[in-house]
């Protein structure tokens, strides 16, 4: 059995700055989005991808058309995103082929995480297949000491980091459970920053699967340089 993945790429990337959305910046001859899609589609257990785009995205056609030839060797479908991450992922879930059922496990992966390792996908898929009701996400324990900021940037407290993890993607859940969690978030206007949070708001406790620290989320120009460096080392 193979799994579909929804890739939200409808964000405008306000934090990064610049004219081209960050997922369309080029690194080593390919866009960030293309690196991300190639990493996912290169895994034998991934069936296909739904890319969620901003309405009227002018950059996607170039990505999907490699000089008249299909640019991908597995199905890549598109959906139009909404004004929140939850709405965008929901739109992607609705676009999944009809043979994907409510109990089927699906993944969600940020367009802005191009450095996904096959071994991390292996680990997540294995862990969640063993606990399909619970679902799970890739993450890593926090390494730095964490301070809570108080007045005028003074330290109000030091947080106990032993139980704190960073949340990455992919995140993997049963399609029906994730859809209803996201619909609930959307109708209540709750702000979520990942899919696990939507599940948690329904009382779920998804698994934390330890992944590689270099599963970068491209957020600033320095992250691009870091990704370029990692690619160079891989070659
Ligand atoms: O803004 P942030 O970096 O957290 O976005 C994570 C991912 O979600 C990005 O790939 C972005 O394109 C996507 N997104 C989306 N629709 C939104 C907001 C964000 O598809 N409305």
From TrEMBL:
<comment type="function">
    <text>Catalyzes the formation of 4-diphosphocytidyl-2-C-methyl-D-erythritol from CTP and 2-C-methyl-D-erythritol 4-phosphate (MEP).</text>
</comment>
<dbReference type="InterPro" id="IPR001228">
    <property type="entry name" value="IspD"/>
</dbReference>
<dbReference type="InterPro" id="IPR018294">
    <property type="entry name" value="ISPD_synthase_CS"/>
</dbReference>
<feature type="site" description="Positions MEP for the nucleophilic attack">
    <location>
        <position position="217"/>
    </location>
</feature>
<dbReference type="Pfam" id="PF01128">
    <property type="entry name" value="IspD"/>
</dbReference>
<comment type="pathway">
    <text>Isoprenoid biosynthesis; isopentenyl diphosphate biosynthesis via DXP pathway; isopentenyl diphosphate from 1-deoxy-D-xylulose 5-phosphate: step 2/6.</text>
</comment>
<keyword id="KW-0414">Isoprene biosynthesis</keyword>
<keyword id="KW-0548">Nucleotidyltransferase</keyword>
<dbReference type="InterPro" id="IPR029044">
    <property type="entry name" value="Nucleotide-diphossugar_trans"/>
</dbReference>
<dbReference type="InterPro" id="IPR034683">
    <property type="entry name" value="IspD/TarI"/>
</dbReference>
<feature type="site" description="Positions MEP for the nucleophilic attack">
    <location>
        <position position="161"/>
    </location>
</feature>
<keyword id="KW-0808">Transferase</keyword>
<feature type="site" description="Transition state stabilizer">
    <location>
        <position position="15"/>
    </location>
</feature>
<dbReference type="GO" id="GO:0019288">
    <property type="term" value="P:isopentenyl diphosphate biosynthetic process, methylerythritol 4-phosphate pathway"/>
</dbReference>
<protein>
    <recommendedName>
        <fullName>2-C-methyl-D-erythritol 4-phosphate cytidylyltransferase</fullName>
        <ecNumber>2.7.7.60</ecNumber>
    </recommendedName>
</protein>
<comment type="similarity">
    <text>Belongs to the IspD/TarI cytidylyltransferase family. IspD subfamily.</text>
</comment>
<dbReference type="InterPro" id="IPR050088">
    <property type="entry name" value="IspD/TarI_cytidylyltransf_bact"/>
</dbReference>
<feature type="site" description="Transition state stabilizer">
    <location>
        <position position="22"/>
    </location>
</feature>
<dbReference type="GO" id="GO:0050518">
    <property type="term" value="F:2-C-methyl-D-erythritol 4-phosphate cytidylyltransferase activity"/>
</dbReference>
């Amino acid at each position: 059995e193979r799994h579909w993945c929804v890739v939200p790429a409808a964000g405008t990337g306000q934090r990064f700055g610049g004219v081209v959305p960050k997922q369309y910046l080029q690194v080593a001859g390919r866009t960030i989005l293309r690196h991300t899609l190639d990493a996912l589609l290169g895994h034998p257990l991934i069936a296909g991808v739904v890319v969620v785009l901003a309405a009227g995205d002018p950059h996607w056609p170039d990505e999907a058309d490699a000089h008249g030839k299909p640019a991908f060797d597995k199905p890549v479908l598109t959906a139009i995103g909404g004004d929140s991450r939850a709405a965008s992922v929901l739109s992607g879930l609705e676009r999944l082929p009809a043979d994907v059922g409510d109990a089927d496990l699906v993944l969600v992966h940020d367009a802005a995480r191009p450095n996904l390792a096959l071994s991390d996908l292996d680990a997540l898929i294995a862990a969640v297949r063993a606990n399909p009701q619970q679902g799970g996400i890739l993450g890593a324990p926090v390494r730095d000491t964490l301070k809570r900021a108080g007045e005028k940037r003074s330290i109000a407290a030091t947080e106990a980091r032993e139980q704190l993890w960073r949340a990455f993607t992919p995140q993997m859940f049963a399609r029906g459970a994730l859809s209803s969690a996201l619909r609930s978030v959307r109708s209540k206007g709750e702000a979520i920053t990942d899919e696990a949070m939507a599940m948690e708001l329904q009382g779920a406790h998804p698994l934390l699967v330890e992944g590689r620290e270099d599963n970068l989320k491209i957020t600033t120009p320095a992250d691009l340089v870091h990704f370029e460096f990692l690619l160079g080392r891989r070659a």
